[in-house]
Amino acid sequence: HVQLVESGGGSVQAGGSLRLSCDESGDTYMINCVAWFRQAPGKEREGVAVVTSDGRTNYADSVKGRFTVSKDNAKNTLYLQMNSLKPEDTAIYYCAADFRWACVSGIREADFSYWGQGTQVTVS
Question: CA angle 97-100-101, nearest 5°?
Answer without folding.
Answer: 100
